[in-house]
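WARN retry 2 of 3 for item q-0093 after timeout on previous attempt; input resubmitted unchanged.
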Amino acid sequence: MIKVLIVDDHEMVRLGISSYLNVQDDLEVIAEADDGEQGLKKALEIRPDVILMDLIMPNMNGVDATKAILKAWPAARVIILTSFIDDELVYPAIEAGAASYILKTSTAEEIADAIRQTAKGQTVFEPEVTTKIMNRSKIAADMALYDDLTTREREVLKLIAQGKSNQEIADELFITLKTVKTHVSNILAKLEVDDRTKAAIYAFKHGIVKPAGDGSSDHIPAV
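OK item q-0093 returned
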């Protein structure tokens, strides 16, 4: 029997979910809480197998409650069950340690299945959440490429994005043309791009250089 704690400030939500879960052979709602503080207290008292956690609640929100629960009880399995898919809520919830993230638009059967999978140590994410996590991971990986650049290579990259030619870069940095070419070659290899234009796009995309003019790129990198 998988024991479940429901933490949600809407009584009708709790009632609807618990009514379905309690008629399942392997699920049992053993407690409910109507805010984060009460949810934290009950979670640590009864140690349920899975905690269904709303995000927007009085006294203590779901992110803070999840953090507090996992700090005191690292083995807890928390499922965020919410109506919100906004970045400012998704990422903090995942970073807080939530094992799964599903929406209230899910069917009762889907919620039950998510509880079963989460209890087994698996993770269940709403498709949109999975996409957000993957995109954020990609951005982080992209920035890791930039971190590999030396200080001089970063200077050269910024000048490339500004449309400077190799000779202009050499003149501005007081280095030889050969040295510039070496830096450019290293930059392309480290950023895993094929040419200067793509390197410039990388710089704009990641906020390393702000596009000139009205917010769009006015410069075409010199070849």
